[in-house]
Write a structure and sequence with these properties.
This protein has helices at residues 12-29, 45-52, 105-115; strands at 2-10, 35-41, 60-69, 78-83, 93-101, 121-130, 142-147, 152-153, 169-175. It is an alpha/beta fold. The mean pLDDT is 93. Bound molecules: 1-O-pyrophosphono-5-O-phosphono-alpha-D-ribofuranose.
């Protein structure tokens, strides 16, 4: 697969405005509560960094990384931790931060794992909720944008580890095989 062109889907300004709104929604829900915000590496790093700067409850921050086995552009059902949470979650509200929910396998795995650590509540903030290939039902509590389909890069999202640094989200126009 080769990327031929990039078409803007959400520019930096649209993302910043939506992330600010999401931050206020999260502030309202967790006002006066203890919250742990967990970033799912690597894709969510930029969204997470921007989102937590809007939060005013002095959250604890942590990071996880998972590996999923399947092709490079899809997640199958086998997911495992390559970096676990370090902050104790027992009795605390936990907000998982994802860049994108696609098949749902990653979030399904993480919800099961984090629930087993005794979290008081578990919610999900995802910048992009992509429904097309959903294989496992996932409740996205705070969704930035809903996208029907397409292959997107930028603002943390990669293709073969490139394009993550782009300030906007782009649809990748793929060169057909053999072209
Ligand atoms: C992407 C994305 C989510 C996951 C969503 O991660 O960041 O974690 O896939 O897909 P799913 O809903 O089908 O499970 P990826 O495996 O590409 O790793 P990365 O975040 O390090 O880029």
């Amino acid at each position: 697969m080769k990327i031929n062109d990039l078409k803007v889907v959400y520019d930096a300004q649209a993302i910043a405005a939506r992330v600010a709104e999401m931050g206020q929604e999260i502030n309202r829900l967790y006002a006066g509560e203890e919250l742990v915000v967990v970033c799912v590496l690597k894709g969510a790093f930029m969204f997470f960094a921007d989102l937590v700067r809007h939060l005013d409850m002095r959250p604890e921050l942590d990071f996880v990384r998972v590996a999923s086995y399947g092709s490079s552009t899809s997640t199958c059902g086998t997911v495992s931790f390559t970096k676990d949470v370090e902050v104790p979650l027992q009795g605390k509200h936990v907000l998982l931060v994802e860049d994108i929910v696609d098949t749902g396998h990653t979030v399904d795995f993480l919800f099961r794992q984090l629930a087993a650590r005794g979290a008081k509540s578990l919610r999900l903030a995802a910048l992009v909720d992509k429904q097309e290939r959903r294989a496992v039902p996932v409740r996205v509590d705070f969704a930035g944008f809903a996208l029907p389909g397409g292959f997107i890069v930028g603002y943390g999202l990669d293709y073969a580890e490139r394009y993550r640094e782009l300030p906007g989200i782009y649809e990748a126009v793929i060169e057909p095989e053999g072209a």
